[in-house]
Amino acid sequence: MASRGGRSGGRANTNAAQVGYGGRGGGEYYGGRGGGNADGGAGRGRGYNQEGGDGGGHGRGYYQGDGGGGGRGRGYQGYQGGGDGGGRVRGRGYQGGGDGGGRGRGYEGDSDGRRGGRGRGGYQQGGNDYFRGRGGGYQVGNDYGGGRGGGGDGGRGRGRGGYQQGGNDYGGGRGGYQGGNNYGGGRGGGQNQPVPNLHQATGPPLSDRYAAEAAQLREQFKGLDMNRAEPTFPARPGFGTAGRSCMLRANHFFVGLVDKGLHQYDVAILPEPTLPSVYRVVMSSLVSEHQHTSLGGRLPAYDGRKILYTAGELPFNSKEFEVTLSDNKIGSSGPRREKKYNVTIKHTNLVSLQQLQMLMAGFSTDIPAQALTVLDIVLRDIVLNERNDMDYVKVGRSFFSWKIEKPTTLGLGIQGWAGFYQSIRPTQSGLSLNIDVSSTAFVQAMPLIDFVGETLNRNGVINSITDYDYVKIKKALRGLRVEVTHRGEMRKKYRIAGLTKQSTRDLRFESSTGVSKTVKDYFRETYKLQLRYDFLPCLQVGTEQKPNYLPMEVCNIVLGQRYQNKLDETQVTNMMAITCKRPSERETSIHKIVQKNNYNSAKRANEFGIEVDYNPTSVQARILTAPVLKYYGSGSNKCVPNNGKWNMVGKKVVNGAKVVNWLCVNFCHNLSLDDAGQFCFNLSDMCRTTGLNFQDGNPKIFYVRPEHVEDALQKICLQALAVQKIDLLVALLPDKNGSLYGDIKRICETDIGVMSQCCLRKNVLKSSLQCLANVALKINAKCGGRNSVFADIPASLPVVSNKPTIIFGADVTHPNALDDSAPSIASVVASQDWPEVTKYHGDVHAQGHREEIIQGLEDIVKKLLLSFQRESMQRPQQLIFYRDGVSEGQFRQVLEKEIPEIEKAWKSLYNEKAPITFIVVQKRHHTRLFPSDSNQDTAGNVLPGTVVDTKICHPTEFDFFLCSHAGIKGTSRPTHYHILRDDNKFTADALQSLTNNLCYTYASCTRSVSTAPPAYYAHKLAFRARFYQTLGSDVASEVSSSSAAPPGVMKPLPEIKDELKRLMFYC
């Protein structure tokens, strides 16, 4: 994949990335006669991993078969390209054949070694002569090397012109190449010319240059036995053709890869660093000191803890090193102190790329997780070690820095930082680097006392604190790192373990001399500090056995700490300012990130044979037609959505729910009785206009203070229920209502058994027709009605309409990052009204902390199958399951644990094998689609119904990206659907159309939604059940925690009342 230049007299440019500069025979890695930056000499050169030095005598290329010398060259295990030599060459290429001026032999490829006549060479033409011919071009006649000897593996000629650069001289001579793998120039003299301001040469896409390799790999693997005993995921049944074709750009960047022999090493560092960041500092110091000695010139990639990867073996199997760090290297300032670490590096195994190559060649195989992990770590190391001027903070696969953009103030001492996400993944077009902009919240670096003031919203003035304040401070400070300011230049850092119960002036401890004194007195006597905030508690930064107390006012918050707690409404609104970028802005930001990272100039990219195309992937998409909807009656009541939306003007719901007895509870102190009464009248009028059987436009209106919600609702509803069943409770809420909404839902759904509809004060006062119509639709769906159906069911529900079908949706939600005990919540819903598929019943339960696999699924499925039979008056004959919230790493678990549970439920009821189509729904990914001007909506997003199943999708399995909704704000995120099982034999068109059409049946609005409604409803039900766990706010719960379950004991969710179980109360 790399070529050698001819004689170049120019001076080498050691800073240029992958450009064939050099002295005689130049080339950064393929020195002909001496010169260059490689190991080439006048004698025997040996190139181990495609980059070896090529001498003037014999050259050998071990891995890539590129060893080429001036005399004889041999490629030992030339996986991709055979040996190329300049004279009498015997090239042995495992796949590609040898190309030389003399004799060549190719073992298993299409390419034969050819004699050097006047043939025209082409880089991807497989085995054509590159020596002594008249140049040739890359593909369509563009000069790759130009004049005599020009081609890819140019020998002695005068290469005129660069790769589509029209004769730009990059190496001082008349030739050269800017963007690929070390292509040399021709014969030139003179100095280096300035490199053009390009990060990558223009010309054919990088993926085209690797296409020949992919073809060779396919040939290699054709003869292998691909049968596997374990279950696998279904292969793609073909590509979709329905819809209008269009071209889009995706934020995927092609990655070329050379197999240089990846090796894994275990790393043990003793004593173990207490801060995660110190691991990298230790390894970085070790590599800097020993790279060109003990490490044999290798530049390893490090995972930041226990594993090291290299391209090629290190000169030892196991070795110990001693690394000495000074305090200032690990983040402490002040007088310099040193700390020694013993580092042991031990070889464990060779990381094979064969499985990855098989996948890239189009053969079904499991995702090669280890190989992809290595590549991810290499790219991560490039960002953290070679782009370290940005002070990046790594969070998962994202990198954030206050230097990218000015941090956005979110409020309460929290900032929003910009960053980017990167991940390498296999796709149909090859390896792809997915890059996206990202943002997250960080704690602002400031004096801790100021942060406490902002947390309490005291405008910098703190005179005293309540018990409520104490809990709020404790929650905000938990786990934060601070540095002390009272010891001069000795800025030691600590992590906050907790707060003391006593204040600084009251807390006593025994000093080293055995004298008992308060913390306040100690700091006055020892450091001459008169503490101003002695009424505040101290920080506990030690252990229970060895406590260490610090007053808050002698601490500063360390820069670069991610905020782990949930943002409040104001903070979320402020965060939207940096997260909601229009598609054009987002695409521009992504391009800037790619250019800034400049992967191809990084040492590790070259070391590991990685090359990134800086141009985004162009992908062919299709825009599916929206389904026609039907409302009450026929004819003019058919509705054709426009750009994913429609309205209720002149339409009535298909089946109107009956609401006879309802009441209103006003929780707003600044909403008058007249305003509340007028809203109730307008709402009842709109409900009747929309088609509901809605009686009584003047319900009883009660005023309740929010803090009395529990007792008041119980009393009001029980009194009303004593007279008549309550069909609906309408609650009017303040715009900022904290936990009130969740409390109302919990009380109504698990204590009383009353359907509720909440409305914010601002919408009550506005009472717009659109708002009232949306509320009416929600009430209808909740109370058992049906809003709309498909006008043409067979066309809109392919496969599903053929025979009775039940469609499931499932999701599991988990507690927030800092919660280490709360249970996860699993929910499952299932359709009940075939063939319309609009009504769903659900089941929800708590399960183990962060447990993703749904527990008790067999019983849940059985219950919902029986419910389907009751409602549809027939048993289902096929089953479709949309499973939300599963990552790629959990596919196997779901296949082996959840699907068998579904099979058992079906078997127990019908005594036959279940015909299952199981689809994973993924929203938490970073693929974005950017449209051309003619295929975008008014917000600049792709149009609703845009589907992609080529290039950026899985190489062999059945998956697709679907953007079924119209983006309202920011850049639309397509949903990724990955099929794990398909007994019902869907075609690509059928499943894509079914999924897109279902998105138009979501009951709560007159818009298509971004996720298939079964999965959306399951998510909403699981999210709703989270309210059932908590009494009031988090802080109030901590102040009064008598209702909490004992540690380690999972508290079950309260039962949903029977009156609501079979209704869609979670809409």
Oligomer: single chain
pLDDT averaged residue by residue: 81
Radius of gyration: 34 Å
Question: Beta-strand percentage?
Answer: 15-25%
Category by helix and strand content: alpha+beta
**Major β-sheet annotation:** 11 strands, mixed
Query: Percent of residues in helical segments?
Result: 10-25%
| Order of adjacent strands in the largest pleated sheet | 46-45-44-47-48-52-51-50-34-12-49
How many beta-strand segments? 52
Task: Explain what this protein looks like in three dimensions.
The chain is an alpha+beta fold and 1067 residues long. The chain is built from 23 helices and 52 strands. Helix 13 (709-721) packs parallel to helix 14, helix 14 crosses helix 21 (1013-1029) and helix 18 crosses helix 19. The longest helix is centred in the C-terminal third of the chain and has 20 residues, at 891-910.
Q: Could you name the key traits of this structure?
A:
alpha+beta; single chain; 23 helices; eight-stranded antiparallel sheet; 52 strands; 1067 residues; eleven-stranded mixed sheet
